[in-house]
Amino acid sequence: xxxxxxxxxxxxxxxxxxxxxxxxxxxxxxxxxxxxxxxxxxxxxxxxxxxxxxxxxxxxxxxxxxxxxxxxxxxxxxxxxxxxxxxxxxxxxxxxxxxxxxxxxxxxxxxxxxxxxxxxxxxxxxxxxxxxxxxxxxxxxxxxxxxxxxxxxxxxxxxxxxxxxxxxxxxxxxxxxxxxxxxxxxxxxxxxxxxxxxxxxxxxxxxxxxxxxxxxxxxxxxxxxxxxxxxxxxxxxxxxxxxxxxxxxxxxxxxxxxxxxxxxxxxxxxxxxxxxxxxxxxxxxxxxxxxxxxxxxxxxxxxxxxxxxxxxxxxxxxxxxxxxxxxxxxxxxxxxxxxxxxxxxxxxxxxxxxxxxxxxxxxxxxxxxxxxxxxxxxxxxxxxxxxxxxx
Length: 391
Ligand SMILES: Cc1ncc(COP(=O)(O)O)c(C=O)c1O
Fold this sequence. Notes:
There is one protein chain. The chain has helices at 29-46, 63-69, 78-86, 110-116, 130-135, 174-178, 193-207, 232-246, 256-259, 286-289, 292-295, 383-388, and strands spanning 24-28, 49-53, 72-75, 97-101, 119-122, 139-145, 167-168, 182-184, 216-218, 249-252, 263-275, 277-282, 311-316, 325-331, 340-344, 364-368, 375-379. It is of the alpha/beta class. The chain is 26% helix and 23% strand. The strands form 2 sheets. Strands 1, 11, 12, 13, 14, 15, 16 and 17 form an 8-stranded mixed β-sheet that branches. Strands 2-3-4-5-6-8-9-10 form an 8-stranded parallel β-barrel, surrounded by 4 helices. The structure holds pyridoxal-5'-phosphate (PLP). Pyridoxal-5'-phosphate (PLP) binds at residues 53, 55-56, 74, 101, 186, 189, 220-222, 253-257.
């Protein structure tokens, strides 16, 4: 079980959960802005370019805000690349950078991906598409596997045994490097600075002077750099050191750090029952609306959870999956039908991963401004979303 990374409810403890329909993701624009301010300061002080990892958070209704602070986006393939360009998350006309990496590319998509991307990153030196990208004038990068395992869990560790993510650094020859403009590694997940430092020292030890051949070095994501206790000075010093020593432009691809603690998932208690333990049956679902709860797994923080609460409930989701349970939580009174609950830190890796398993409705999406208290429901989903994905 991974630890929850939520730093608490923040301004959401002032938010009346009855103001939104359920299920609903509520995103606080001001918290996104304050995360972006931290990230901009890192970029300004280090000279690095910071790209939003769309796989974590693709909220294009906030594109103006995101473009105000970040240097562009990183995409995982054609659709995210299109979204970045078409929805103003990384506009070409504003010289925003779009970097695309996928473990492999389709021949039917490579030309369009090349036309959208500034950087195209490949998983190994012989990957399909390197030639097309070079001919199209795209800056080509190679993702390496730095072969230094620093993750909490092999599932989220690109250096884990038998990883398919990136070319093993120990296999890399001088000749293989020569065809690439940039180097990419992504080796972390929700981590502080020290594992990045260790990863870089390993890369530097293995590649030595060969690092001089690159125009850019992209250190991927997984940096929890908007968390209170993150060593931001350490990160900035490293980025400055790398760019000066090897004369490269550095890049980071934060995803989670952009939206950390910026959203909640609000649900309603539909029923309660006792089956050895007390259960509250909700209209939100871990497997449909917060799948990392089961995949990671982890127990999300709950607004108002009382460690020593007299009334303890297993908060269960609305699908048929036995494991569709958020966890056990404490309350100071009995739960009843109609009560609202809110899981914290639910803006990243949630909206981008939802599904309608069991015909469970998708959560609405609301934007809230914790400074002005302005609230708008920006998206509602209906039965058609479910029907349209089936045939
Ligand atoms: C290549 C790459 N870049 C960036 C990210 C974003 O990571 P995070 O959201 O943890 O910052 C990921 C996440 O898996 C990734 O695989």
